[in-house]
Amino acid sequence: MGEGGSQDPNDKAREEFFSEAQELIDGLGRDLLAIDEALKGGIVPPDAINDVFRGVHTLKGLTGVFGAGRMAGLSHELEDLLDDVRLGRVPMGSPVLDLLFQSVSLYVRLLAVESGAATDPVLELDDLLTALGQYSHKKPGSRPGSGAQYDLDPSIFGVLTEYEEHRLRSNIQEGIALYRIRVLFPLATIDSALENLKTRAKPLGEIVTYLPTGSSTGVDTIELDILMASRASIGELRAALASAGVTVDAVPKRTSSSAPIPVTPTTPIAGPAAPSESPHSAATTAMPARMEPSSQREAAAVPPGEVPSVPAAAAAPTGHRGSQGPAASRQELSLRSVVQTVRVDIRKLDRLMTIVGELAIVRTALSRLAERSRAGTGDPRELLIELGRLHRAFERHLSQMQSGILEVRMVPLGQAFDKLGRIVRQISRVHGKLVNLVVTGAETEIDKLIVEELSDPLMHMIRNAIDHGIESSDERVHAGKPAAGTIALNAFQKGNQVVLEVEDDGHGMDRDKILSVAIERGMLTPDEARDLSTRDVLSLVFLPGFTTKGEATDLSGRGVGLDVVRTNISKLGGVIDVTSEIGIGTKMTITLPITLAIINVLLVDVSGRLFAIPLANVTEAIVLDEHQVRTVETREMLSIRGASLPICRIASLFGIPRRNRVQPRSFVVITELGERRLGFVVDEVLGQQDIVIKPLGKSLKAVRGFAGATELGDQRLVLVIDAAELIDEVLASGETRLFALAGGHHASALQARGGEA
Amino acid sequence: MAALTKMAAERRALRRTGDGGKRIEHLALSLAGEKYAVPIAHVGEILRLPPITEVPRAPRDVLGVISVRGRLVTVVDLRRRLGVQEAPFDGKTRILLSDVGLAESIGLIVDEVHQVWRFAADEIEAASVLGGEPPAHIAGLGRPAGGNGEVFVILNLRPILAAL
Fold this sequence. Notes:
The complex is a heterodimer of chains A (757) and B (164).
Chain A: H1 9-40, H2 46-65, H3 69-86, H4 94-114, H5 122-137, H6 154-159, H7 162-173, E1 177-186, H8 190-201, E2 205-212, E3 221-230, H9 234-241, E4 246-250, H10 279-286, H11 293-301, H12 346-375, H13 380-409, E5 410-412, H14 414-431, E6 435-440, E7 445-447, H15 448-469, H16 473-478, E8 485-494, E9 497-504, H17 511-520, H18 526-530, H19 534-538, H20 562-571, E10 575-581, E11 585-593, E12 598-606, E13 609-614, E14 618-623, E15 629-632, E16 635-640, E17 643-649, H21 650-653, E18 667-673, E19 676-682, E20 684-692, E21 706-711, E22 717-721, H22 723-732, H23 735-756
Parallel strand pairs in A: 6-8, 13-22, 17-19
Antiparallel strand pairs in A: 1-3, 1-4, 2-3, 5-7, 8-9, 9-11, 10-11, 12-13, 12-20, 14-18, 15-16, 16-17, 18-19, 21-22
Helix pairs in contact in A: 1-2, 1-4, 1-14, 2-3, 3-4, 3-5, 4-5, 12-13, 14-15, 15-20
Chain B: H1 2-16, E1 24-31, E2 34-39, E3 43-48, E4 62-68, E5 71-77, H2 78-82, E6 94-98, E7 106-110, E8 112-119, E9 124-126, E10 138-142, E11 152-155, H3 157-162
Parallel strand pairs in B: 2-11, 5-7
Antiparallel strand pairs in B: 1-2, 1-8, 3-6, 4-5, 6-7, 9-10, 10-11
């Protein structure tokens, strides 16, 4: 339960820390995926690497400030590795990328530890730090040969940062032409003008560095030499960058390997002519940066506010760390983020504010009306009409408010999908399968709560698809399919529901295999099996304990099966369905309500107490015919339409004392959770209502069976029954009933006291 | 209303002890005939008893939940919590909403709420005067100079609420 105004500022700061750290970590994951994509195409993207570097750096600062020591430590090591990568001292490739992806997962877990939500992954952190440390050892001692084939002033190398030098070299190695762009900027607008130029130059190539020429151009202008690598022709560059004061020249390639000669100075097209000074002396005079070249240049190379500190050389990776790789056995990881905040588009809030304004107008009108009625002036009928009008206005604004707030709760599903990309990569690599994840509909919006609760089920489904669905590359090629498997994750809105599909193009589910496993495990008899439709057979995979793989792998089959997925989806009020075709693939479809905030419930009365049962779980309500009740093994069963339905009397389950008066008849509210059904016996069914559900406080977390409570119009609170949890509980064991009876004892004592209040 | 009660109590307390010194404000309350005091900083609000919705299967100390301006608050019977003789509620029964920096504000049912006392440091005796190992929820004993020899058991709400 959040504490409105009286919140401890420390708590608030911590919350902000978590939300910011989470965002940074998510961002890292996205950047790494982008790098992965680029690497597949044979490109090493310097921008993305820089983004990751900056992200880790920011995270280091953030975690350091908040005393999250181990996250800061990890960031520190990572920063070293990334610095080496972006300087080209360590090549960016799969091994490094694997480490980086591992780091992201570990960040997620460490963050969860900080929030007290997970156990400490000490061993894995040590392993990862060891692996990272090994990279720091591998640094080549000297720099690779310089780009001497270019006619560059050697003094330039003196002022380039190591990073710029690396970029210059790699561009030269890739055979990309170098250009010198000389620009004259008015000092007053240099920031925006430079930014503008950079934006225009960006699509054409990479700006390696820019240096002031030092030409005495006047007191309020400055001349810069921009060194740019581009595959574009000089004509294209000139066309793109042409404006007053810009000259573009190619840096000539040296024809022989003779000693570097000074570059012929270029003359600007416009602006005060620069005195013919040699660039050498220009660079010298213009370079206060010479004193501290690296800090100055770094500052120019990254946006302000994110100036990376230049890490102390090698950052002392300690001694001989063991050579074992990253821990092979990873703990079951959860993708659920620890953050409870929603970032909201300010325009959405503005709309809400407007509605509040409208409501204020209604209030003013109401108080005027109240005054008039008190004074007894005016025609009563006229007052009534006015009251009706205000009531309608109020109703309209309230419903606008409601939908506006629901909108604020909505977040794009992409938030959950981003993390899945990471998982797909990780799992497919561990498993040695080639898998592409194709996502559509990431912009589909759904309640923040649902997005959080969806992460884990989706992760299991995707694991399942990779582990059980997608074949090995050899098998796929043999079957005439592309070597890389595809998992499609589609999301779209359908009325008041959101549909999510996880579709793989693997080998599909084998009806006979599923049946033989189910029979082997005693889930059904061969006779029963004969009568099942294909759809029924496929849905067997959602039963607890079902797995067709002979043994559990690292990925799935560890008890966290599809039954858990289905239970979780059911708890969200959704349903899951599966279709499959041999050799073509498998598709799992989840249908979910868009929001959990407002749910439709059935109000029931048990011995004078009200409870609400979410209608999403209710199939029907019938009058209880006591003659049809049989007791089987302490469990009561109701025969209904020739089938048995286990029933549970809420009064005895919750230990509510019976009323003295004779109950003429009772009702059975039949609920369903996946394949399991349970009837709740109640005294009366009062009707349906839309409610806003509020969670019970932390202190009542241990109390099972309630999803929360809601306020009815008359200030009364009504507990909302968590049907899924109760079905689990009641059908799992008979013992709970005894427990509930024991609990009933004090409940009756309480009742007595409450009555005297 | 509750806020008004609190402010009025504070004003009364201010009038009595003129000096501003290093005095700490405590809210005096009764429970099973004993006088207790709680640092006023730990009390967010004082409420009259609203209808309480019982939560089946909740721990024995928990009476149920109430709604305070749309927020669900768990209500704990302080008599049960401290293991003293139970008694029926009456018109003087109040709920203190705790504010001890925990994630959740808990409502504590007390028999009666009195005035605010401002204890100077030398008016508080350490809990150790009780001898033995004093329970964690007893922070000390308050003996205000103007209190006609009355003794208040100063409660530390954190241990009382943290174990919920």
